[in-house]
Design goal:
This protein is of the alpha/beta class. The chain has one domain: Aldolase class I (TIM Barrel). Helix content is 32%, strand content 20%. An 8-stranded parallel β-sheet has the order 1-8-7-6-5-4-3-2. The termini are close together. The model has no long low-confidence stretch (mean pLDDT 96). Its cofactor is a divalent metal cation; Zn(2+); Fe(2+); Mn(2+). One of its GO terms (biological process) is pentose-phosphate shunt. Pathway: Carbohydrate degradation.
């Protein structure tokens, strides 16, 4: 199966958001990645429920909503209602992760877990069969355009081993600093979904850039 591409609208032109979403609709994009930041869990504020709803009104691709917020449980239903198909919460923000994952699934969404660069994939062993998608942060969360962290490669390989050991169907998503140079290496390590923000939206031809990423074996 070919790699899935999830452009992050955090890097899009907010003043022309409808146009940007329509561009993604016309591309080989698989998911539209929506980064929600609260200025508490991460040192930045992005956007919230109203913008997610606005994106959903124009999107023809599933919304992959990444909650970089404290107390995510309070907002699961609101983001489901706003149009999320996938909801990812941070391991570091969830005291009762298993319960949170079940709550996401009960809403009819796919359940994702995001891991900060310092968080070990070994911590997911006991819940890997309950997770539809693991989002490995390959930069420190909070800002776009950061330098890719090289330790991501062995982390992805180890997570793939855990998934196979447990007979899970979990997808591995990489978020941060993805480009045409590291994408093949990430794919070889076991990545299933690549989040690309600046690399897509800052390129002269975003549709062609997505096509190029999508073609990576």
């Amino acid at each position: 199966m070919s790699v899935k591409i999830a452009p992050s609208i955090l890097a899009s032109d907010f003043a022309n958001l409808q146009k940007e979403i329509e561009m993604l609709n016309a591309s080989e994009t698989d998911y539209i990645h929506v980064d929600i930041m609260d200025g508490v869990f991460v040192p930045n504020i992005s956007f919230g429920i109203p913008v997610t709803e606005a994106v959903k009104r124009h999107a023809k691709k599933p919304l992959d909503v990444h909650l970089m917020i404290v107390n995510p449980d309070q907002y699961l239903e609101a983001f489901k209602n706003a149009g999320a198909a996938i909801i990812s919460v941070h391991y570091e923000a969830c005291t009762h992760l298993h319960r949170t994952l079940q709550a996401i699934k009960q809403l009819g969404c796919k359940a994702g877990v995001a891991l900060n660069p310092h968080t070990s994939v070994e911590l997911l062993k006991d819940v890997i069969n309950d997770i539809d998608l693991v989002c490995i942060m390959s930069v420190n969360p909070g800002f776009g355009g950061q330098k890719f962290i090289e330790q991501t490669y062995p982390k992805v390989k180890r997570l793939k081993e855990i998934i196979l050991e447990h007979g899970a169907s979990t997808e591995i998503e990489i978020d941060g600093g993805v480009n045409k140079d590291n994408a093949p290496l990430l794919r070889a390590a076991g990545a299933d979904v690549l989040v690309a923000g600046s690399f897509v939206f800052n390129s002269p031809d975003p549709i062609q850039t997505i096509k190029t990423l999508k073609a990576i074996e």
